[in-house]
Amino acid sequence: MRHYITFKDLTGAEYKVLFKRAKELKIARRQGHYLCHHLNGRSVGMVFNKNSTRTRVSFECAINELGGHPVVLSSGESQISRGETPSHTARVLSRYLAGLVIRTYEEKELTDLAEFSTVPIINGLTDEQHPCQVATDIFTLTETLSPEEKLEDQIVSWIGDGHNMANTWIEAACVLGFGLHLACPPGYEPDKNISSRAQSINKKIKFFKTPAEAVPGTRAVNTDVFSSMGQEKETAQRLIDFKDYKVTSELMKLALPEAIFMHCLPAHVGEEVTQDVIESPASLVFEEAENRLHVQKALLEFLIPKL
Ligand code: CP
Ligand code: NVA
Fold first, then answer.
1. Atom 2 of ligand 2: nearest residue by CA position
2. Which of 41, 115, 192, 208 counts the most CB atoms within 10 A of its CB?
């Protein structure tokens, strides 16, 4: 039994299998074949301690289309917020569910549950990581590559906050071997443990002072909101600190001519990205959103054995 808490919980070879299956599921669904019976009536739980549109809906659809039933709860309405321990919660939920997706604050909440869970725990976003999103983004990037372009030869740029998305991109570059150029405002760098470990393995993970230095030569330009969920009180200060970390059409021109723009969404258009960039043909933001469904279906199939 495997959990999916950080991006490095799967190997490069396993991501290849996952992406191949996601592509098959995407093609089948577009031909009207929505249902398969992998989950065969089993239920998958989803705990949301933060807001969500894409993660919630794409997982609910994925679970339904795999022939399962999603059970959605927030810790506020369960006994978790009244202090029931991870040890008891995980062992109880494992008796009902075939897997559990969790969106919350600290990664420790997932690892504590994983210690006692006998079904896969899947990270639906924490302050440290957003692996389902980054796996999907890389799948989306690979869909745009020509047969001559190999993922490991590409460079991706990350502009902005060194929070969950940036940490996960760093882990992804480490697992999959592509280049990553990051430009984060001073004081908003990614997790030091994650970046130093990754940089010792992949020398193509590099930090730059400005977006204009990070973007040249990159095949995808990526950003995220200035203030993530849980950072709302810092919004005013972040608007000042991030003012030079906006993806504009001038910045996109510094990337490769075929460069794509990526954003996990939701976006604050006019802050981290301009309207013309997010609405440009280079922008794959809605493809990324759709692909969450296909990649997560493949992930659920991978983690939850067929009966
Ligand atoms: N990208 C993403 O995870 O979106 P939601 O917050 O809407 O789930
Ligand atoms: N960094 C953002 C991602 C949202 C999908 C957040 O944590 O709010």
1. 228
2. 208
